[in-house]
Amino acid sequence: MPDLLLAVRNVRAGYGEAVVLDDVSFEVPSGESLAVLGRNGVGKSTLVLTIMGFTTLIRGSLVWRGEEITHLAPHRRPRRGLGWVAQEREIFASLSVEENLTVASRPGRWDLAAVFELFPRLAERRHARGHHLSGGEQQMLAIARALMTNPDLLLLDEPLEGLAPIIVEELTAAIRRMTGEQGSTLILVEQHADIALGLTEHVIVLERGKIVHRGRSRDTLREPVLLDRYLGLTLSDSPPASGP
Amino acid sequence: MISSFVGVLFDGFAYGMLLFLLSVGLSVTLGMMNFVNLAHCSFAMLGGYVTVTLMDRLGWPFLATLPVAFLAAAGASAALERVLFRPLYRASDLDQCLLTIGVVFVSVAGAAYLYGTVQQPVQLPGYLRRAVTLGSFRFPVYRLFLIGAALAVTVVLVAALECTRFGARVRAAVDNQRMARGLGIDVDGVFAVTFALGSGLAGLGGALAIEMVGLDPSFAFAYLIYVIIVVSVGGLASIGGSFAAAALLGISDMAGKYYVPQLGAFLIYLVMVGLLMWRPAGLFGRR
User: Fold this and answer.
1) Domains of chain B: which residue ranges?
2) Tell me: the pLDDT tens digits for A130-148?
3) Which of A120, A157, B193, B198 is deepest in the core (most CB within 10 A)?
């Protein structure tokens, strides 16, 4: 039985008075990958932001390796092992690629050499400022920057959004390497449901801030009614070539 | 004619460097933290009074008082930041102005109570009271020292911001506070240290300013307006901007008083208005 990394228990959260998530509970054991799916505006990114401590938590708790972190300051959560790739990438524009990578890095297996091997393009652009990168390069940098904090759990918030197909392929291969060869634990929030289901072992589906489905990603791919109803995905839409 | 022009240029630049030392901390902290700290010159004044006290009452040499002036202002600002300012980081600009102007009133009253309202004299060491003569030009050593100090501070600040991990963290926090926190950077801690360093530089500027502009309890108000002009014209969070704006404004002010005495000290405001109409975000403004 793998160690339990994160437990989200009965979480009700949002922004100020506005409630976005209601009674959300799930667990992430070490070494597993979880897809968080749902249509736009159902609370997927709010869930990630809640885990990172950036929303108003009205009820419920977050437990990290058996320790309550519900009220832990946001900047202390990455130090416990939570890594975050924000939806809008949020690259530090005035920092170079290398500075973006090292500004918050912590010792571990992910160092500059390792992330440059994963994303060779970043090595070529290591001295370029953040605002000079293309969208795809920024996304690679956002993922690499999070990896450089050597997280035990990586939260990826829509990493494939708005990218050219060739970049999507490149990033998908990188995420597959992370979950496969390297055994990283991750939560993947994604609009591309078919790709996310192909990259992860488990899935939860959100609808209006509640979990309406949970199960194995592979099995969920065989539920066309569910895919259509909650994700607007039909099986004729490019199914993934292989799972993790 | 040429001699007076060079003299005005030199004196104006030296005065500009003094304004730079007084204002660069405010530029960085205001630009980074969006905190309107009108009490910035109170820390400068504190640095000045520390130097006066150490020299007059304890007989310290002038140069030895400068690091203490820096540390005293940095320490006082760190304490105030923790107790008074930090709770207002998310408050409105008006709330921040009201609080910090209140701190200015308290500091002015405190200085008047402790030292009276008279100008505080400071006796510079002999080697700083001399002048260097180059051809027909004569340059006071103290002003050369002032320029050297400002240039040294600029180099150190730029190197610290551009070449150190702490500097990268400061810039990251300026770029995107939430993301910086999300990567584990203690943004409040980074800001607190930067705030203290900025105020420490003001304290150093206050100590260096005594010989040139004098020191009395009105200092905290009198130089607040100049510091705000430098920050506005230079652009927030820009060391280069503050340097350029301070040099430009110092020379303009000196030239105005020398060549157009009818306008007197008003020329500096005309220059400010002109520059801000040309570049509303300042010379090197980020936003």
Assistant:
1) 2-278
2) 889 998 899 999 999 999 9
3) B198
Could you tell me the two tokens for B23? Answer: 């204002």
What band does A240 get if pLDDT is binned at 50, 70 and 90? very low
Task: State how far the Cα of A123 lies from the Cα of A113, in Å rounded to an integer.
Answer: 9
Instruction: Using CB atoms, pick whichever of B168, B186, B187 lies closest to residue A95.
Output: B168
Range of the domain at A6: 1-81+152-159+184-244
Q: What is the DSSP letter of B86?
A: G
DSSP state of A228: I
- Strands in A210-216's sheet, in edge-to-edge order, are A82-85, A153-157, A185-189, A33-37, A202-207, A210-216
Evaluate if residue A117 carries a pLDDT over 60. yes
Is residue A113 assigned to a domain? Answer: no
What CATH architecture is B2-278?
Orthogonal Bundle (1.10)
ipTM for the assembly: 0.89
CA distance A52 to chain B (A): 7
Mean pLDDT of B232-255: 88
pLDDT of residue A243: 45
Side-chain half-sphere of A121: how many Cα atoms within 13 Å? Answer: 14
The Cα–Cα gap between B260 and A173 comes to 70
What would the DSSP string read from start to end of B232-247? HHH-TT-HHHHHHHHH
Domain count, chain A: 1
Q: What is the pLDDT of residue A1?
A: 54
Name the more confident of B90 and A48: A48
Residue A126 in any domain: the answer is no
In this structure, is residue A242 part of a structural domain? yes
Q: Where residue A205 sits, what CATH number does that domain have?
A: 3.40.50.300
Domain contains A189:
yes
- Say yes or no to pLDDT of A244 above 60: no
Chain A nearest-CA residue for B167: A103
CB contact under 8 A, A103 and B185: yes
CA separation for the pair B15, B20 (Å, rounded) = 9
**Following CA atoms A76, A79, A83, A86 in sequence, which dihedral angle do they give, to the nearest 10 degrees?**
40
Q: Report which DSSP code applies to A129.
A: B
- Is the Cβ of B184 closer than 8 Å to some Cβ of chain A? yes
- CB contact (8 A) between residue B178 and residue A90: yes
